[in-house]
Amino acid sequence: MNPRFMLVLHSHLPYVKHQGRWPFGEVWLFEAMAETYIPLLRAWSNLLDDGISAPITLSLSPTLMEQLASSYLRAEFVEYLRACEKRAAADERSFLAHGQQELARVAMDYRRFYQDIRHFFAMDMDGDLIGVIKDLSRKVPLEILATSATHAYLPLIRDRESLERQIAVGKECFIKHLGYEPRGFWLPECGYYQGLEDILELYDIKYFFVDAHAVEGGRPIQTFSGSHPAMEVETAEFQKTGLSTYSPYRIKDRSLAVFGRNTMVSLQVWSKDYGYPGDSSYREFHKQQPGSGFKYWRVTDRQSDLGSKLVYDREQAQEKVREHACHFMDTVEAVALEANRLGFSEPLIVACYDTELFGHWWWEGVDWLEELMRLMAARDNWRLVLPGAVLEEMKDLPEARVFESSWGTGGKHFGWFNQETSWMWDTIEKARQELRSIKHPAGSDLVARARTQAVKELMLMESSDWFFMVSNNHTRDYAVKRFLEHYGKLVRLVEMVRMNKFSLEDREWLRQVEEEDDIF
Amino acid sequence: MELNRKSKGERYLRVLMLSWEFPPQIIGGLGRHVYELSQRLGNYGVETYVLTPLVDGCATYEEFQGVKVFRVGTPLTGSKRFKSWIFDFNTELIREGIRLDYQEKGFHLVHAHDWLVGYAGRSLSRVLNVPLVSTIHATEYGRNLGLHNPMQREIHDIERNLILDSECIVCCSNYMRNEIQSLFNPNPSRITVIPNGASMNRYRVTDFPPDQEFEGIARGEPVVFYIGRLVPEKGVSILIRAFRLVLQSIPSAKLVIAGRGPQGPELQRLAAELGLGDRVWFAGYISDDLRDRIYRRANVAVFPSLYEPFGIVALEAMASGTPVVVSDVGGLAEIVVDGETGLKVNPLNEANLASALIRVLSDPRLANRLRSQALKVITEKYNWDKIGAKTSQVYHAVTSRARKDGVG
Q1: Chain B environment of A486 (Cβ under 8 Å)
Q2: Cβ contact (<8 Å) for A485 and B127?
Q3: B177 has a pLDDT exceeding 50
Q4: Does domain B13-197+383-404 have CATH number 3.40.50.2000?
Q5: Which residues of A are catalytic?
């Protein structure tokens, strides 16, 4: 038996540039860069140094790429790292002064961590993460997926023009930053409905990904973290199809292929109850040192309150990383055996995760990935594969129909459409009507600029993030504020176009908004 | 080419005022407040545009003595969930606020009343690049004596963010200033206290005899009057218990309880259990006219609240010439000077409340003194013209500050 393993990491952050710093705003991006993206790229370059070339599929959202490319944010990021280093050093001194050796050691680790990241970012990477990714792709088999422009949740964007714009701009942005045409497309949140293929085909997309139940049917797995206060989750139930995710499929009557995410490997990492990140030795995410905000404790006991957490021990955590990598390897072995029993001689196991899970949420996650790649490379019968190559190998794919679905709570659209968010979708429809009312504006260059900016504001409103934050009651105020500000800007821009009058103040304001929401 | 819409030398300030209540839609004191305030601002160089929800049977545009009132969105009644309605209403406020900014000459500031219009206020202030003034009439924490469920916590957060984004926060009493400061910790210099006002002419009802008969009040009965919502924070159950003690001294006394609320049935049960029988009249919701007549007829008005940011009802009673007994809490404590403009009692102490009521009912000289002193204070201090003047000062200060900072 020769199983194949496909690692797919989806990377995304909403557009936070110029939209607040801390606690909400640009710091979100900086945390992901420092704790996830840079460590991940370093891990792959370490692997390469040891002669291991681990194929990986990455999706990079356009909002993320635009921000990684911004010279303003690159400079701010270095300042952020310097500030982190200082805060860690201050904690270290304070712990030492109070005789807290254990805590001081963790503080020292943080200080070194941020110093390392800063040197690596400024020197080795030249501040250019996208450049490093492109460079890596020349040395390691690496496939990059495009996704919708502002990470819009596509099944709920039924307006054809908006839908097409999300996909078209997503593709354009990919080409702008990477210099070639994308082949694969990441549907944000794995959100799919029958009909999306029409547009994906139009833009020469060859394949996309869905959650397991979209292919297999049955009950969706409930792995998404997040609580829905005072809301009854609607869970969709799908007819069993008899198909599995061990093979990709060709969408019926289409040229597009679809990959299904493997349930077992997702649960192992994501599950609140038995996923790895909740292990007692790993760093506790929720307890922070007042003042500096650093996290000095381990999970200890998931049920225990934050007051009774023990101090973090790096060696102990690294021990667990190796243990969990072995455990995961055993799990995929078992899954492959089961697949083999079903008649798949080269079963495909597709593991899709949000990139930010590793490092940011699960502090040891990047080390775990690196360790896993080493284990995989050491097994002769296992192959790490990329979607494009798989499709080239398999000329005659079986056909399938895929269910309307997502990887979110309830398996369908509940995480983005519910009683808390329905007004937001109504507002988006109002915004579209505003835009339609100035479809063919005649006039100066100012009119064209204002209309273009209004379209950007609509796209920013369509980001799935605001809906997700409102549904989960997580930084809800920031989400509503952002959503309504983009709406307000859109209304003002449309009004300017409609009246075709631009006072000095209007022109200055237009320039400001173009600078503030300067995406694409 | 056009010059700036908000030219700097202008004498007039154009203010966009957001309120989820406006006459005829009156749920609490907020709608009446916005109405009275907006009427007065014109005298102080302020042109006011009020945006408020559509009400069935009302025009989408009306003018009241120079105040332009625009009704937007869908009526509250019979629409969807209250929360969805609030957010829809806020998006309509944003839409209409910006449209007006272009059709008229441009606003100089946005004034938001309470959290229900918080998001629209913040968004409009950002998008139109003008300062935000907010009036906090009450807080969710205060209304509920704490935060007990997710909805209350969410409202608390919306209040916090409205307050922190405001150039100036107006509240009606020192009590409210302290509450806002301790709950949300804004820059203290941004809070301004401007008391609420009472409208004198509305309560001057002299065209009917004082000792009138009503459905629930017989001739000659000394009347104790409560008007307000029937909710625990208003302390009506303590009033009913205290009234039992009043009857021991003055058996012919009558307690009139006007208003509705979730606590209504419980209060009626309590009165029955205490055997008060026909000595208590639950009048339910009453018209403004009947209210004024009862004020005229009542010997004492009583407001035994446990929480009261301001206590406009006490001002109304004072303006109508009725002696008042109030609890020594919140804004009520600031309005009434004990023994001069009314009597103050400890909340929760029924014996204390009963003896205060008995004093006013049995001492006509005391009652007269309280009545005339109260009228004097009302005319001098709680006067809508003064409030209009003070509010316009806030507007001028905020806009000139904004200009200095290069905003607006």
Answers
A1: none
A2: yes
A3: yes
A4: yes
A5: 189, 354
